[in-house]
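ok so I'm stuck.
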Amino acid sequence: KSLNVPAVKILSEMGIETALSYAKKLGLPLTEKDNNLSLALGGLTEGLTLSELSGAYMALANLGEFSSPSYVSEISLNGTVLYSHTAEKTSVFSPETAYLVGEALSETAKTGTAKKLAALNIPIYAKTGTNSVNGKNLDAYSVAYTSKHTAVCWRGNSDNSALSQTDTGGNFATESLLAVFSELYCRFTPSPIEKPAGILKTKFDLADFENGDLTLAAPNTPVGYFFEEYVSVRNLPSYQTSANFLAPTLDGLTVTSDGNEASVSFFGKKPFVYQIYSVDVFGREELLFEANGQNELQNYAFSIGFLKNYYIKCGFIDYFGVAVWGEPEKIAVYSGGGIFS
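replied:
not stuck anymore, here's the structure
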């Protein structure tokens, strides 16, 4: 899904002047008239040439190092090199920053607006854009890069007349790049962009994230209850570890008894498993009840046996497939003269 608001918020957070300074290092000829938040969406006074745009994306492909685009790498005649392009490199971003941006753009090429490039089945990174005025598409862009090549496609009319409504960056422009890269890689597959040493894949707790908090997943967090993201070790904030799966706990536990029967209620949470069992005087356990939490109040009633203690515990199957159980809680005991709970 293409969203504009996050880009504007990030630009506002980092500051327009800072963004303009990065643009200058990337060889983008922006002016003071571009000093506004529309910069985040490509709203430029003069615009950019495709060469300038490709140069900026090449810096991401080269892990933060910018060099002016070149269309000729070498000219040779009868085995003699007559010309060899030597690029002057300027460090613009840290390798970690460029890699993280690339990870986001790789998702664009897999499932996002440039998903038509997924048919290539190669490591590729892409961004699309469509300029619309009064509901009419005037410009359609698609940019994509690999570890070897960067390509840009623009579709538009010289008289600035409207394109068809289906002529968007993710449609025909991306199809053009698909044709280009299909030809480039018909005989080999480019290698992925190398992950810098300062990049770490980290697990975050999904439930906390959905509630607006970003916390590290506890080591035992089950599959399906965390998500993984690459982070820069250099800029890693001090995240707290989520308490969700540090130790299984019983919530809302109540026990009632009339001397012969006992009734237990508790709030069963997903993905926890709950067990009620008895232990006789010889230490033998008997499982009476087992159920998965359903994020609702759950109940179980049982008859009190002779000289038996009764316990409830909850646990879950962790990331490694191992059962992790919390401390059992005694809920009833036969004392010979009555029931205590």
